[in-house]
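User: Here's a structure from my thesis project, written as structure tokens. My advisor, Dr. K., wants to see whether a designed sequence matches the one we expressed. Can you design one independently, without my sequence as a hint?
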């Protein structure tokens, strides 16, 4: 980055800046098909299947959840951009044979993330109706997820020492409660709270502390090959050079440096 721009960005001097630095993508790690989507799917599945809102049927329970979601946004004064949640957005195939996950075309990263404060409120209401250690841990999980996003949204590029420590603690508590819920569910014969490789990536956000992932997330894992192919094609528009591969990577590095400089 220094060689391409001549500027010494403070990020370059951060002790955790190394070749794997750009591999953590907040969007796909937590939101879209990530840890949060699995947690929301499992929580909604439990509330619906166990009739924890005392509605009498799965259909009525899901309808009540959607009504509560509309009311939540009405009370907050914000427009509800989250579409109606259907059972097909929660259960994948046979509900008792596959782990639930919030999924489907309407539920990409932004809509998944937007459900976080509502899920924190919903799980708190359910705990008041059906108090149990399991429901307490579930309520705490979403409370910590809500704080996780608040820290990201309310801070700049670099965390203070206090914020960084709190951020790491919040992530640890999210993962600890997810693991507890997973273990309890499996012991009871239910496929809930799926543990996926992205849980490991989430922990890396806590290890690589000091920076706000909102500013330094990247699609590098998802589209790195495609993006380099586009740059490669652009390089071939001119005269052939034996070092075209090196040029491709230099241009990509330059693009990243420009993005960080802005």
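Assistant: Designed independently from the structure alone:
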């Amino acid at each position: 980055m220094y060689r391409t721009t001549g500027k010494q960005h403070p990020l370059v001097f951060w002790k955790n800046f190394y070749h794997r630095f750009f591999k953590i993508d907040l969007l796909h790690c937590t939101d879209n098909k990530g840890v949060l989507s699995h947690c929301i799917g499992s929580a909604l599945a439990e509330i619906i299947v166990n009739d924890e809102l005392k509605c009498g049927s799965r259909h009525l329970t899901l309808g009540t959840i959607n009504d509560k979601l509309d009311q939540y946004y009405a009370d907050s004064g914000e427009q509800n951009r989250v579409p109606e949640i259907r059972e097909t957005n929660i259960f994948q195939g046979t509900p008792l044979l596959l782990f639930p996950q919030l999924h489907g075309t309407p539920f990409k990263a932004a809509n998944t993330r937007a459900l976080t404060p509502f899920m924190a409120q919903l799980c708190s209401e359910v705990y008041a109706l059906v108090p149990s250690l399991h429901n307490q841990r579930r309520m705490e999980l979403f409370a910590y997820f809500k704080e996780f996003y608040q820290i990201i949204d309310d801070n700049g590029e670099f965390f203070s020492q206090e914020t960084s420590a709190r951020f790491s603690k919040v992530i640890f508590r999210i993962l600890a409660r997810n693991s507890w819920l997973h273990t309890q569910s499996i012991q009871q014969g239910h496929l809930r709270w799926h543990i996926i490789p992205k849980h490991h990536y989430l922990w890396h956000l806590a290890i690589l502390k000091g920076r706000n992932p909102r500013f330094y997330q990247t699609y590098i894992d998802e589209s790195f090959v495609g993006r380099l192919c586009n740059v490669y094609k652009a390089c071939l528009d001119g005269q052939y050079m034996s070092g075209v591969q090196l040029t491709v990577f230099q241009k990509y590095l330059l693009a990243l440096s420009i993005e960080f400089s802005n």
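When you compare it with your expressed construct, this may help: The first helix runs from residue 2 to 5.
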